[in-house]
């Protein structure tokens, strides 16, 4: 006979990962000593984050001081940083990643319009800037003065790069005129113009020996140039390939946004997809071992709801599927024979149904809706078995735990709740998020516990540890201490050690024993009013 799974009762937050990157440029610096340790600098909202490459730990934040950064460049040494703000000011910083500090050293203004990009040369002496005023400038960082001003582009200069060979003193700039220009710092002149792209050049890179230049653009071309003659060597069309068979296959059938997807337990027979237009249907078959899609096709398509389908789930036996919709209903579908056949409708939610999940052992599903409730349904007679109430706003995700004996739910209120599926009681509430908790998953550890992950719209990812056993041990220890103190109280009363008895009565919260002690200590009788 199988043993009863241990019911979870308490989780403890063990780690949290906050937002470190919001898009744009990322610059890395790797230690020259071992080549294994380093950090990267990236934009995070209006500020810059410096993050450890190995651990992902946030080392320090470069503050913008109410002047949002528009560009930045990291010196080759990794100890200096130059930033540009919306005020068009350039600022120089000294970084000390070891002690996680950054110090502002100087500021200067040069361009008439916002700075779009910054880049250091290989020596770390010069920094170049490209601006929306169609110019590129070069500065001596140590002196904070402009040494060069280059004009020639007819549009925004959005990209600047120095040649990796510092002795050449060549600056490459890309502009909105679809051209890449090469500037010689010694002659202060444009020595070449690389014209081949019919779209905006978005990247400039160099080979390790500096003999080859690569430019990539929005025309989906990568152009290869000879760095000595500035002649075009070849053009390569960029395509995205599957790494297994170097092919790409798309699944067609929906006419609007696909909002939900689920697969069979084996993950290789079919996948049920649902979209904003309403139709839901399984797509397949797929092969599982090779992870290659083989002529995937829609096996069945039906218009099952009157509004968007928010979620779909497939039963562990692959015979049933359930769809949850904005129309406040859930529908149960039979998958036998490869065709979708409606076998039941689950009605009860007062608002849109956001999530649905099959029980791993019982013929039941759980759903969460915009009415802030979690409902457990029977897929045999399509009745509502339980309604769990406790969230203050929409329930967004549901997860079964403890072999179907417990449920975990997360909502727009930022809370995560652990429920008993049998008596509808809330075992505990986890509160770490400040916004909608959209992501929820659990993993059974090798030690037999459960590790929980949650993610929310506040860009916070939290890892939780199951500490049910520790909580039970604490409860047992607290009960033993209480019994011990009660025994000590009786002994102190019997021995007429009223001072000690008073302390124990107060600690235990025993009003009757406290009254008895006070009557013995005070000369006047106590009168209750």
TrEMBL record:
A GO term from the CC aspect: 90S preribosome
InterPro entries: Quinoprotein_ADH-like_sf (IPR011047), WD40/YVTN_repeat-like_dom_sf (IPR015943), WD40_PAC1 (IPR020472), WD40_repeat_CS (IPR019775), WD40_rpt (IPR001680)
WD repeats: 108-149, 150-193, 194-235, 302-343, 346-387, 388-429
Gene Ontology BP terms: endonucleolytic cleavage in 5'-ETS of tricistronic rRNA transcript (SSU-rRNA, 5.8S rRNA, LSU-rRNA); endonucleolytic cleavage to generate mature 5'-end of SSU-rRNA from (SSU-rRNA, 5.8S rRNA, LSU-rRNA)
MF terms in GO: U3 snoRNA binding
Top-level lineage group: Eukaryota
SUPFAM superfamilies named among the record's database cross-references: Quinoprotein alcohol dehydrogenase-like (SSF50998)
Keyword line: Repeat, WD repeat
Protein name: Transducin beta-like protein 3
Source organism (scientific name): Chrysochromulina tobinii
């Amino acid at each position: 006979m199988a043993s009863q799974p241990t019911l979870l009762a308490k989780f403890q937050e063990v780690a949290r990962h906050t937002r470190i990157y919001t898009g744009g440029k990322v610059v890395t610096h790797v230690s020259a000593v071992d080549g294994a340790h380093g950090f990267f600098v990236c934009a995070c909202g209006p500020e810059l984050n410096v993050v450890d490459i190995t651990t992902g730990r946030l080392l320090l934040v470069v503050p913008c001081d109410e002047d949002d950064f528009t560009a930045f460049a990291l010196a080759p040494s990794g100890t200096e940083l130059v930033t540009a703000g919306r005020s068009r000011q350039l600022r120089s910083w000294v970084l000390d990643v070891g002690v996680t500090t950054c110090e502002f050293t100087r500021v200067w203004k040069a361009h008439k319009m916002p700075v779009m990009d910054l880049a250091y040369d290989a020596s770390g002496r010069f920094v170049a800037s490209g601006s929306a005023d169609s110019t590129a400038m070069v500065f001596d960082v140590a002196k904070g003065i402009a040494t060069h001003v280059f004009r020639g582009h007819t549009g925004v200069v959005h990209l600047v790069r120095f040649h990796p060979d510092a002795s050449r003193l060549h600056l490459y700039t890309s502009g909105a005129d679809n051209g890449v220009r090469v500037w010689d710092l010694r002659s202060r002149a444009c020595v070449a113009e690389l014209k081949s792209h019919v779209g905006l050049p978005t990247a400039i890179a160099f080979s390790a020996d500096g003999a080859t230049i690569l430019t990539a653009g929005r025309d989906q071309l990568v152009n290869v140039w000879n760095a000595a003659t500035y002649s075009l060597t070849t053009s390569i069309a960029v395509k995205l390939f599957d790494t297994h068979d170097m092919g790409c296959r798309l699944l067609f059938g929906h006419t609007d946004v696909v909002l939900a997807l689920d697969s069979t337990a084996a993950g290789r027979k079919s996948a049920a997809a649902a979209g904003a237009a309403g139709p839901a249907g399984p797509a397949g078959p797929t092969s599982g071992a090779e992870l290659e899609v083989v002529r995937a096709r829609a096996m069945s398509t039906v218009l099952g709801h009157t509004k968007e389908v928010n979620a779909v789930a497939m039963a562990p036996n692959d015979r049933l599927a359930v769809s949850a919709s904005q129309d406040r209903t859930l529908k149960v579908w039979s998958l036998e024979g490869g065709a979708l056949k409606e076998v039941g409708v689950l009605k009860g939610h007062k608002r849109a149904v956001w999530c649905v999940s099959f029980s791993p052992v019982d013929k039941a599903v759980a759903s969460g809706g915009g009415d802030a409730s979690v409902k457990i349904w029977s897929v045999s007679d399509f009745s509502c078995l339980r309604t769990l109430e406790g969230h203050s706003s929409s329930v967004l995700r549901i997860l079964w735990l403890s072999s179907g004996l417990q449920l975990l739910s997360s909502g727009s209120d930022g809370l995560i709740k652990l429920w008993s599926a049998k008596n509808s009681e809330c075992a505990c509430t986890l509160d770490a998020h400040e916004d909608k908790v959209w992501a929820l998953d659990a993993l059974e550890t090798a030690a037999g516990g459960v590790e929980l992950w949650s993610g929310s719209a506040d860009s916070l990812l939290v890892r939780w540890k199951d500490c049910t056993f520790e909580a039970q041990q604490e409860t047992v220890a607290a009960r033993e201490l209480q019994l011990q103190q009660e025994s000590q109280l009786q002994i102190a009363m019997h021995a007429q050690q009223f001072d000690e008895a008073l302390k124990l009565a107060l600690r235990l919260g025993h009003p009757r024993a406290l009254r008895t002690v006070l009557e013995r200590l005070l000369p006047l009788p106590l009168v209750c009013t």
